[in-house]
Predict the structure.
Amino acid sequence: MNVEIQPALLRERFYPRSRQTVRPAREFAAETLRAWGVTCRHDEVLLCVGELATNALLHGVPPGRGYRLRMLRYDGTVRVEVHDSGGGRPRIGRRDPGAEGGRGLLLVAAVADRWGTVARVPGKAVWCEFAVGAGAAVGAGGPPDGL
């Protein structure tokens, strides 16, 4: 069997605690997708980058700290990770239908193939994945078992 193993591609950038960093984070993600030649699922990836960055800023980045956006490409998959140093574990909660916010993770779960969280010290990483390779199957959109 002749199998070509390709290494994972990785790009990351650190952003300070400021709501003005969400747009540059999305622009970095768009630039990364272009550099990798990923043309499908562009809008979904950028939506999730914006939502995860916003959630980190609102709930996970203490004053004087920042967050890291990490993007990986491997085996027909693009993975987006947002690392912050705050406590807690993100979850989809019940929200008032009339509320202006509170739907970020619901959107991520709806458009990403998989999503979840990983504890780190300090803080956590919230991630989502997108199948972008030829013949890749789209998953159910929820977190994997146990998350």
Q: What stands out?
A: The longest strand covers residues 66-74. The helical segments are 22-36, 42-60, 104-111. The chain has three helices and five strands. Residues 135-147 have pLDDT under 50 and may be disordered.
